[in-house]
Amino acid sequence: MDKGCGGLCALETEACKLVDRVRGVRVCRLLTLVTCSAQEWRCKNGLCVKADARCDGAIQCYDRSDELHCDCDLTKQFRCGHSISCFSNTKLCDGVIDCWDGFDEVNCTAECPKDQFTCTDGQCILATRFCDGFVDCTDGSDEPHGCDGGCSAHEISCRNHRCVPRTARCDGQDNCGDNTDELQCS
């Protein structure tokens, strides 16, 4: 019967070691710290990684400590949520998620002027081109389901021919895109 540590060892400072091979007894033992060179950085668990790997966005330490509590040069870099990892400002809103929390791709689409429709990819088109039967947005978001006027029984038809769920009627939000689902509400 194997008598292990059962996850009781302290993650950063102890390791489960086999002390009796015959009986399978294991105990928690303090990790022996290795001396890191001047070009290396010590992980919390004692392992050494290259110093330039610290806060570079790629996890090098098994305990992820090389990406925690990062101090970034905020004139050239941005920091992901909870002080994790530093990335160049050029990676903000580039269409690729670099941060673990997606922070670098949040709020990247600018609002279009009132007389224009904002496509899902951020492109602006004239509002009159929304649901006109022709795809104007490069992602096709200006011609969603329901533009052809064929709304389902559980949907309402907006003035711009878009279909939205009946539950969207008078809910305080412009679900149609032209505010017709919020007209004539008591």
How is this fold's topology laid out?
Elements: E1 14-20, E2 25-30, E3 40-42, E4 48-50, E5 77-80, E6 84-88, E7 116-118, E8 124-126, E9 155-157, E10 163-165
Structure description:
The protein is mainly beta. It has a domain at 50-105: Low-density Lipoprotein Receptor (Irregular). The protein is 0% helix and 22% strand. It has strands spanning 14-20, 25-30, 40-42, 48-50, 77-80, 84-88, 116-118, 124-126, 155-157, 163-165. It is elongated, with a radius of gyration of 28 Å. The N and C termini lie far apart (72 Å). The mean pLDDT is 81.
Please give a handful of descriptors for the protein shown.
Low-density Lipoprotein Receptor; 186 residues; two-stranded antiparallel sheet; mainly beta
CATH architecture tag of the domain at 50-105: Irregular
β-strand amount? 15-25%
- Shape category: elongated
Helix content bin: under 10%
Put simply, the count of helices is 0
**Class from helix and strand fractions:** mainly beta
Mean of all residue-level pLDDT scores: 81
How is the main sheet built? 2 strands, antiparallel
Radius of gyration from the CA trace?
28 Å
> Regions with pLDDT < 50 over 5+ consecutive residues?
none
Text of the CATH class of the domain at 50-105: Few Secondary Structures
Distance between the termini: 72 Å
From N to C, what is the helix and strand string? EEEEEEEEEE
